[in-house]
Structures are given as structure tokens and as C-alpha cells.
Records
---
Amino acid sequence: MLTRLAVEWSSTLVGMRLVSFRQESGERFRLAFASESDALSLLASIDPLHPWIGEAGKRWEGPRWSPDPFATTTAHALDGRLVTRVVKPPADRTLRVDLGDGGGLVFELAPHGANVILLGGDGTVAASLRSPKGSKERLTPGRPWSERALPAARRDPFGASAAEIDALLSGGATRGEASADTLRREFIGLGQVGVGLAIDEQADSGRSLGSVLRARLDSILEGSAEVVIEGPDGSDDPARSELLPWRPGKVRPGRRLFARERAAATAAHFHEALDAQRRVRARIAALLVILRGELARARSAERKVREGLASFEDPDRFRRMGEALLASLSFAVRSGDVVVVSDPYDPDGRDVVVPAPPGRSLAQVADDLFRRHRRARRGLEAAGARAEALSQRAARMESLLALHERATDGTGADCLEADMRSERLPVGLVAATRSARAAARAVPPRLDGVRLIVSAEGWTILVGRSGPDNDRLTFKIASPDDIWLHAAGVHGAHVIIRNPERAGAAPSATLAEAARLALWFSDARSEAAGDVHWTRRKNVRRAKGGGSGQVVLKRFETIRVRPQSPRDDT
């Protein structure tokens, strides 16, 4: 495949000038070439597992990337240079683009050894993106660049005649070896797909496998081989498709062929689809890891609450002791810090010992016991309700896992993320910019320092947990038109009302609900009521010389509310 692309670029690229060398991600580079009458862009990915190169067909949809110093050095060295030659060394996954005066670029595209190398004017190594241990000496700046050493026992298929190939196959057959195994063992660079195509054609045509393979290799060198994508009918799933180095003689049942105008464009279309699918699946996997972690935490919290329930004192015990004490006030016997009275609920009239701290009258002791009864009953009810809420939350997350664990596409990832946010899991909380949304799609962040609450009117409210969390929420997550709130004059959480539609103002009920949360998550929680400042996030600035989370407001308005805890806070 790489040889076929090199043949194509030897005619289309030579004579063009490199007008841009840009790093789009940690492993992806875009090269733009232009002449007086034409323009062409190449994409090169040096992903360790799936390196590839091809002709760019669409813009990068991932997050913006700060270029590596190598990218900046290469752009300064090569921008405006003329392409003089495109070389594909025999039997190696390496492509060299010479750009005048002996300088140029080398793309090494072997799995687990992918790299980009900048060559100086005398063909020496000027810089390389990676310096693997095995190639460190070979890639030392100032040394002449050389190809990696290839296995001595394997041959270049482009240099073998049809008779030589058939002789090797005959020897393999004598040893009981399959033809495909012989070809891959004897030759380097013959992929499984190409070998399979040649064997199928040999079976259909009746010609020798050596002559079929030789003819196909010649078509690659001549540039007449048509690179195509073979995929299933009615599906665009790249994982079920294959990139073929030439058009097969017949199409398998249930499959179809697809090709772009040029071989390099077809190759890039295939690889970009695969890369996009890998990114989506990595995003889904990351979301499911978060969901499983939250499920485990919910189950653990439920278990601890239920264990605590078992240790609660019986509330009715305090009530019975209080009633026994009141029934015996006139003749109760007090001894030290206890009172011995008859138990009115015991059919045998046995005594019960009631704690009676010194300095408290028996009536006051009875009141204390009834108060403890009410408090213990409320605590028991609250703990039971919390345990039940945690159990229901865990059950809902188990349902989400069952519903989404087979998701494979972008729509499935979006639905999973939306359902997780409905469970108040803070995922996908990014600023409303293209680059931030793309970054979240690539690696979905979960912000443990942010509470996610949905208002009664359906608006998303975010609450910071600490100073650094407040700072990140306000200046990294919130968008300029989001509504920002903070309790006036006291330490507290930053609160954000998301405003993706850039509405003129949040509904008054949602604004009041967010203000109550800001007061609740502040040092004014115990106050009967308090003031809360609110404004657009774009009116908030970091305080010069202040600590993390400290801000100044360009303008603001004030709302007075009572503090209130979040609904169903778990």
C-alpha cells in the first residue's frame, strides 16, 4: 500500500511547495502543498499501533493540540521548500519526501516504531519526534540518516520474479506449508490482505500464484493498481471493512467496493474512519469506567448506611424510659446518676434503670429522654431514606450499564453521557467552544470537584467544592454567558447556571434556586437568609494576588434568599 502511494505522489507532489506543516494531535500531522495550478494536503498518523499516511479529505474534528517543539522546528526549516523527490525504500514501511538541498522529511510507519524525522541539507538527522531506545544512535542529530536494519532472512517481493516466487512456494508445499504462510515467511511487506487477494485470483484464473503476484506488484509500481475499500452492503462500519491494495477480480457476496479519485485519498478515508471509531469507543469506555466507579461507590455507601442502621439505638427505648419516669415521679428512687422506677410496659412490673445526670430534675430528665426519642427516630428515618435512595440510585446506574455497555457509535456515546448527567454525574462539563467540546469527545473528563444539580425547570446548575474547584469551574468550564453566583461577603462555593443558548437571563425560579444553593454551600448556611451576588461569567475576574477561587466582579446584581440544601442530595 505504501509503495502504491509513493508512486502516486512521485507524480503529483514533485514540483509543489510545502506551504504548511501542522501538528493536529499528539500523533497526527497535516502537510499542505501547493503549486501555481494545484494544491494537495497529506495526513500522517504515527499512532504506535495504527500508523498511516494518506491524502487529507476533511478537517480535524478532535481537540486542538499545542505543537511539539519538533513541529515548530520542522515548519521553520521546510516551509516554502520545493518537493524534489518522493522515495519509498524497498521492503520497508518508510516514506521519504525530499525538499531541496538534501533536506526533507522521513515518515517511519512501522507499528510500534512510527516516527517523523527532519533531515538537514546534507541528509543528516536534524531532529526526530521520538527517540526510541533501539534507534537512539541511528537518530542522533548530525548523523547521516539510514533506514532501519531489516531481517536478513526475508526478501523484498518487488525484486523477485514470478519463477522465484513459484519455486519458494513449491518448496513450502513440499514441507506441508500453506502458500500464505510461505509468502509471509519469505517476503517482507506482504500483508495478509494482499496475499489473500492473490491466492483468490490464482484459484479463479488457474495461473500460478507467482505470476499473479508478480503482475499485481508490477501494477503497483506502474501506478495502475486501484486502491479500494471493501465493506459490507448497507453498512459504513470501518471495523468490518478492509483497505485493498488493488481491485479484486470479483466482489464477495454481501460486500461492496468503494474508492476515491486517488489512491491516497481512498487510504486516508479508510484510516480516518477507523481512527474516528477508535476515538468514539475510547470515549465510551472511559464513560463506562466512570459509571462503574460511581455504581461501586453508591453500593459501598448504601452498605455503610445499612451497617449504621443496625447500630442505631432503639428510639422507643428512650420513650419508654421517659414514660416510666413520669409515671413514677412521686416515688422514684434516685441513686447517684440513675433513677430506679417500675416499667409500666413490663407485665411483671420489673424495675428499669433510667440515667439521670446530676443537676437535672426528674421532669427535665424525662423531657431529655423524649427529645432523644424524637431525634433518634428522625435519624433512623433519615438513614433509612438515604439507604433506600442510594439503593435506587445504584439500581438506575446498573440499568444504564445494561443499556449502554454495547454502545459503539457517537450517538450512543452522546446518549450515555446525557443519561449519566441525568444521574448528576459531572461528565462532559466543558466550555461552549469547539475545541473544548472536541476535547471532551476525545477524552471525557469527570470533574470530581463539581456538584451537578438540575433545577426544577430543567436548567443545569454546577457547584464547586473547594477553592481550586471553584477556580476551575469558573474559568475552565463555565462559558462567558453562563450565570455566576456567590454568597455575598462570606467564603463559599462558586455556582454556575449553564446558559448554552445565551438567553438574556435565567428564569427567576432557577435563579432563586441557584442562589439558595450558593447560600447553603457557604459560611452563611446557618443564617435565616442572606444576599447572593450574581452576574454573567464574563464579568468575573481572578483577584490579583488572591488565593485560588478568589475573584473580583466587574458588575453584579444581588438577590436575597433563604439557604436550602439541594433536592435529593446523594
---
Amino acid sequence: MEIKTQNRNKYFLYVRRSQDSEDRQMASLDDQKSEMTRYAKQFNLNIVDVIEESQSAKKPGRPKFNEMLARIHKGEANGIVCWKLNRLARNPIDGGQISWLLQQGIIQHIQTMGRDYYPTDNVLMMAVELGMANQFVNDLSVDVKRGMRLKAERGWMAQSLLPIGYKHNKGYEKGEDEILSTPDLLIVKKLFSHFLEGSYSVADIHRKASVLGLRNKKDKPYTHNTFIGVLQNPMYMGKFEWADSTGSKTLIQGKHVAILTEEQYNRVQLLLGKKGKPTRINSYDFAFRGAAMTCGECGHSITADRKLQCICTGCKNKFSCKTETACTKCGLEIEEMANPSFVDKTYYRCTKKSKVKKCTQGAIEEKQLAREIDTVLRDIQIDKDFYLWAKSALREVHKEEVDEQKEVAKRVYNRKNELIELADNLVLMRARGEISADELKKNKGELEVELNQIDKEAVAVSDRVLHWVEIADGYLTFAEKASDLFNTTTDLKVKREIVQTLGSNLTVMDKKACIVLTAPLVGIKNVHIATYQELGRFEHEKTLDKQGLNRSKADAFAVLCAE
């Protein structure tokens, strides 16, 4: 390592540590500061300020780091001292800023433990080190997510923080339980049994827990809201919520010890609707809320209602248990009924806000509305052979057009780099006295005008590169997969997005859904039908991989698309 003598640079000492996995083995802030201060004194580096930050560098946005770069731009310092290069950046954006400032000479020197970096150095080594720091974070994230997914698939909740009464078995051997019960689980079980009696509120359970000695890790009583979460948590009935590969949340059967049956859990939710605030039972997220539905008769918006009713075991009367705690006919309390039946349905109906004409439309049940929407999805559905063949045909037929757009984008990008290099050379020429200040100002102004024009052209080219072929590709994927995804996902957001992609005008009339399909989906539907009539069956995926597209079919497909 070589450090230049008689160093006149001014340095910021930057130290960073976070609690994320990638930093757990890193020296503490105090250790970094003390070691690098000693190091700076040894090599006569002038430290003008120490900047400490306790935040992950996985993504941009560290306030102290950004403040340091701003101060460097102002000329308060032109060097950085840090423990390792990965203290400065673990993401490509921050790493790119540091690398660029060094190449431009705004940063004259970066000193780490055992290595230094100067503007005249080969930028490749620095890029490799910053890239390794970024890749380490990416690999770590992938490994952690994979490990959590595999643990969930084995039947064990993979969250770091488990509900009261459970803990991770950190040193488990293969075949052993990965989640263990703690003595607190017996207390939680008592709390559930009290709540199931029907005479306890959440506040009562909260007070009961304090009496029974339930404490958090800081040996303090839990909060009221904690017990709302406990009473709502399906883990106590042996299941846990987990997002599958598509991001949809599902309930998975766990292997941990359960203290409730499913019937008991459902009864707790019913009682919680009456005694707990805020409640889960009265807070709904409807599947098609936000899908811009209107009434086919009067044109006003569609709203949703959830009916949660109890069938009295005494007189068989059906009544709302969202607001009532006893049968409205015979007065029998729900808590006193033996295994009462519950009806839980969601309906969509017109808001009936028309002042001109009374709307006569009735409500449609959510399941029926979903079936109507699925009928439309199945009507535009394409089979896998056509899907794969059409994707290949689109790219084959329009390959030259797409390649031409990419070539234009490449030329714009290269010209922009040339202009930036010319601007840098002008600054160097002025520094060497080869041109006057007026010449620098004039030439730089001309370059900036062209750069602004190039930037506008780059945006336009970027938009053109997102060719209609790519858009059609996305709609092909939608037509092939949407129906299956609509019927299998439990994520209401995904269902709404499918409906919104399907069409912009969804009306409900006589308990039927009418959807005006978007133009691309209409086109795919028509081409799908016409292509089969014109060309017959298509090559399977393996045949496509081996032989490629049949040229005559590809040409015929292009004609059909144009029509």
C-alpha cells in the first residue's frame, strides 16, 4: 500500500454499521472510529469531521451519507477515510456516485484499512469491490428468502418474531421440532378459555394476563392491542399465514403445538367482533372494491355489503350477529347456543342514488359475480401451445423493427457519452491554459444544449423501445394465465388487478356482469380463433425449441394480426 506524503487533502471519517445480517460481523462504530482515527494520525491525514451512521446500505437513501457527498461537492473535504469500501456502499447507485466523484477528481483520495483509491487508479478494481459488496447483499437476500420459504413448506412459521408462547429452536437437529412452546403458552391457553366463556372483553383479558404474570422480554406488561393480535392470530389453532410464490397469502397447516380447535378459533373471532376494538370481524376488504363497477340500469356506482348472520338453535330465526348478540326473535344469547350455524356472504348492489328514476336492480352475491367474471376470462383464454407459438411469432415477424429501435437507442447512448467526455476535456484544457474562460463558457454552453436535446431524444427512444410487441406479449401472458390465477389466488388485490386489466367498463345488470374488453384482448381473442381456422394446430414447446417457427405460418400470422 502506498500513501502519498505531504497530503494536503481534507478528509471525512465515515463509519457505518447496521443490524442487518450483512453487518453482524462488522466492527462497532466506536471500534471503526477509534481504529481509523489512529490510522489517519499515523499517515498524517487531516480529518475535518467524523460522520457516524447506523443504517443499512442495501438501498439508497442514507441521510448522513448523502449529506457527506453534498458537503464534498461544496468543497468542505476532498477525501474519505473508512473501514472498508463496503461501509460506503452496498448498492449500485451509491457505489456509482462514489466511483464517479473519484474519477472526476472531486474526491481526491479514499483511504480504507489496508487499501487506498485515487482518481488515476484503474476504475475496474474499485468497480469489482463495490460490485462484490452489492452482490453479497443480493445473494444474502435470496438465501434468506429461500430458507424462509423452505421452512414454511416444512410446516414451521419462518418469521423471526413469533406470537406469545412460542420460540424458535435455534440448535435443532434434523427431525426435531423447529418451534417450541414456552411456559407462557399455558397462560395464553387460559386466556383463550376465559374469552370463550363469552363474558370477558379484550380489556378483561389484558388485566387477567397481568394478574397471571405474563410479561414481555423487558419484563413489562403487554399492551391492550397485543391481545387483540393474540386473539386474532391463527397460529394458536395450528395454522399460520404465508405468502406463496405468486405473493398470495394463504393459511398453512403448521407442525407447532396448537391450543385451539378451528371451531374454537372461529368462535373467538365472532366474540371478538362484539368485544374487541378495533375488530377484524367488522373490517372488510371486498374482492371487487375499486373495480369501477356501475349499475347497468341507472349508471350509478356499485357498493358491497357483507352479511354475517347467525341461525338461532332455539327458534331457527336468522339474525345479524354483526350488531346483535342475541336472537332478535326469542332472545337466546349466542354464547348460550350449542354449535350455532353462521351465514357469511358478500353482496354487490347499486347505491340507488338516482333522483330521476327508481332503480329496480337487486343484489348479486360475490361468488356469482366471480363466476360471471371468470366466464369472460375463459372466453378470451388461449391455450399454452398458441401462447408459446404466438410469442415466438411476434418476435420473429417484427425482429428487424425491434432491432432497429435498439440500434437507435445505442447510437443515442454513445453520443451522450461522447458529449460528456468532450465537456470533461474542456475543463482539463482550461485547467492547462489551452483555452480561455470565455471559450470554455461558450463551448460548454453549446455542449449543454446538445446534451439536453440528447436527453429528450433518449426518453423518446426509451418509450419507442417499449415496442407494441412487448405490450402484446404482456396481454398474451394475461390471456393464457388470468383465469387460472383468478380462481386460485386469495389475494384480493390480484383479483382487482385482473378485473381492471380485463376491461375498463364493468356493469352489473339482472345479476349478470357485462365487461367491455380492452382492445388488445379483443384482438388476441379474434386472432386466436382466426389463426386456428387458418393454420390448424401449432407446434409444441419442444418442437419450437428444436425446429423454430414454420415460416409460412409466421407470415400468415402476421397478416392476421394486421387485419
